[in-house]
């Protein structure tokens, strides 16, 4: 098993470090390092190991000692990739020792020149019992000189197969082949060269705004705009939408569809509005109060709506194709009926027309 693990680790190391070593001829060799590591490991209290064909629990304190090697590559100033191998010697509950190894791959992120954290995948084998785990690491690294650095780190790993939760801590020395800048002080930056002073420009003539709209003549595409209107950046009048609403309300006597004499002025006013806006069509909505049978009220509401529609067409000259009528009976009261006045308010026709016009926007 150990021979297989060593072969696997060698293949991983070769795969990760080959492109790094291949680039050393073109780069400064300052991003690749090798290191030695020494540490302790706290096994899960459920972890077991095989010793002399017998099953034992591994002691769950920090009583497993580790030693190993590592190789890493600084992909950027912040991101680092690392592989490692540790030989492990563990105490067994009830006496005796078990041996194994641990290897894996980490991706580390450096928050600054010293502090880093990362995630990785680990394979831990103690006494012929193997578990694959996800590992989280935090650590601190300081440079002794431009090539040599020491580090200390710790973390926790969580098994995928055996559900082990285990902790570790270790220290290490790392040798950077091309050297790193170990000085804590920031590198000085060259001072920018001062440009020669430019001569002061000659004053330009004051721009002219002939029509006083706030846009100078050189940019004004709409000359002589009225001063009362707001203009855009080209000096042209800005427009806004204006909604005009015309409403018609005619009330009727009880059980009657005859238009009252005093209602014709309102009907004529609606007709004039329709002549001013020939694009509009109208629907007259007839209504009744709640007295009487529903079928009768429906018939009466339709007659009321049609009488007003006929007045628009026959009396005031609106084209019949622009006028429609519809009865709603007692289904849409205007007010809740608690009195004779309420019932009178519900005996009615209603119509509303709206038109949106674009008008010049006045200056504020």
TrEMBL record:
PROSITE patterns: OMPA_2. Residues 239-357 form the OmpA-like domain. One of its GO terms (cellular component) is cell outer membrane. The keyword Magnesium does not apply. One of its GO terms (molecular function) is calcium ion binding. Its main location: membrane. Keywords: Cell outer membrane, Ion transport, Membrane, Porin, Signal, Transmembrane, Transmembrane beta strand, Transport. This is OprF. It comes from Idiomarina zobellii.
């Amino acid at each position: 098993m150990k021979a297989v693990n060593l072969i696997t680790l060698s293949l991983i190391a070769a795969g990760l470090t080959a492109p790094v070593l291949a680039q050393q001829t073109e780069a400064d060799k300052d991003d690749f390092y090798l290191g030695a590591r020494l540490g302790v490991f706290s096994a899960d209290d459920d972890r077991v190991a095989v010793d002399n064909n017998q099953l034992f629990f591994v002691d769950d304190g920090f009583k497993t000692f580790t030693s190993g090697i590592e190789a890493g590559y600084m992909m950027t100033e912040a991101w680092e990739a690392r592989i490692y191998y540790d030989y492990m010697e563990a105490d067994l509950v009830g006496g005796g020792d078990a041996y194994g190894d641990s290897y894996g791959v980490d991706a580390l992120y450096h928050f600054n020149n010293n502090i880093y954290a990362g995630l990785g995948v680990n394979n831990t084998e103690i006494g012929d019992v193997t578990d694959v785990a996800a590992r989280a690491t935090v650590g601190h690294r300081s440079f002794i000189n431009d090539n040599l650095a020491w580090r200390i780190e710790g973390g926790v790993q969580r098994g995928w197969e055996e559900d082990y939760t285990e902790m570790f801590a270790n220290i290490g020395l790392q040798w950077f082949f091309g050297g790193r800048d170990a000085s804590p002080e920031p590198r000085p930056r060259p001072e920018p060269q001062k440009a020669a002073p430019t001569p002061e420009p000659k004053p330009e003539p004051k721009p002219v705004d002939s029509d006083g709209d706030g846009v100078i003549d050189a940019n004004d595409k709409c000359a002589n705009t009225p001063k009362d209107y707001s203009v855009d950046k080209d000096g042209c009048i800005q427009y806004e939408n204006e909604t005009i609403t015309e409403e018609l309300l005619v009330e009727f006597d009880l059980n009657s569809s005859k238009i009252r004499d005093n209602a014709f002025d309102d009907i004529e006013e609606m007709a004039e509005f329709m002549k001013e806006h020939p694009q509009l069509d109208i629907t007259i909505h007839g209504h009744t109060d709640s007295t009487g049978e529903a079928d009768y009220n429906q018939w009466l509401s339709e007659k009321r709506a049609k009488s007003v529609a006929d007045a628009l067409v026959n009396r005031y000259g609106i084209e019949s194709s622009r006028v429609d009528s519809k009865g709603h009976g007692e289904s849409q009261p205007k007010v809740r009926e608690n009195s004779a006045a309420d019932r009178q308010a519900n005996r009615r026709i209603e119509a509303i027309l709206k038109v949106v016009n674009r008008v010049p926007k006045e200056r504020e």
